Amino acid sequence: MEGFCHHKAYITKRQQLALLDDLLKIIKAAPFYTPTMPKTGRPFSVQETNCGPLGWVSDKKGYRYQATHPVTNAPWPPIPKSMLDLWQTLTSLSQPPEACLINHYKNTAKMGLHQDKDEDEFTAPVLSVSLGNSAKFRLGGLKRADKTQSIELKSGDVILLGGPSRLAFHGIDRIIKDSSTLITDQTNLDAGRLNITMRRVTKLAKV
Ligand code: MD6
Ligand code: FE
Predict the structure, then answer these.
(1) What is the pLDDT of residues 50-67, one digit of tens each?
(2) For a pocket test of ligand 1, which of 105, 197, 201 has the largest count of ligand atoms closer than 8 A to its C-beta?
(3) Extents of the domains making up the chain
(4) Ligand 1 center to residue 197 CA distance, Å?
(5) What is the pLDDT of residue 190?
(6) Torsion angles phi and psi, residue 73, rounded to 5
(7) 172 close to ligand 1 (CB < 6 Angstrom)
(8) pLDDT, tens digit, for every residue of 159-199?
(9) Segment (H or E) for 89
(10) Which region, left, alpha or beta, applies to residue 60 given φ > 0 means left and ψ of -120 to 50 means alpha?
(11) How much is the pTM?
(12) Candidates 3.30.160.20, 2.30.42.10, 2.60.120.590, 1.10.10.10; correct CATH number of 4-199?
């Protein structure tokens, strides 16, 4: 799909460990919570938290971006510098991301096919980093029924959904257990996988 970019092994092992350290500090300040589906209230199988000025949340009332954690009501912690630098390098945008969503998958978690469309700005890509166990990522087209492909995302991989692929349907079919040793039990993360996505939420200012 045009605009989709997969940088395999973009982040070195050393950088992954440093990023994991930054994320563990964020998770201490803004603990994972279990989002629920709008209307049905069914819990997600992933746990989520955010950093940055805005965070993506989901509960019975719907999907939205908000400046505070839904459980602690505290403002989200700032986005780590390494992630801001990655955004600058790979998007070439002078304006920073406003939201950084952190998903935690236990080995049995998955994420259904969806589009990221709760933002007001679709010209900026969504940048996504994978850490820990590998995942089978499914990428489709602009319609739910479009043909899909399966892509394996490994620890240190970065993908960008930009251009026409910005609104492509995508999801996580499954996590491949024991495929990475990055996230150990010491992290209290039950092994599994972390996925970090950065987005622009409001319109880019014209410069
Ligand atoms: C995941 N990723 O990799 C789920 N969304 O766990 C996403 O939902 C996603 O990887 C938008 C752009 C890139 C992504
Ligand atoms: Fe998504």
Answers:
(1) 999 999 999 999 999 999
(2) 197
(3) 4-199
(4) 6
(5) 83
(6) 65, 10
(7) yes
(8) 999 999 999 999 999 999 999 999 987 787 888 999 999 99
(9) helix 81-91
(10) alpha
(11) 0.97
(12) 2.60.120.590
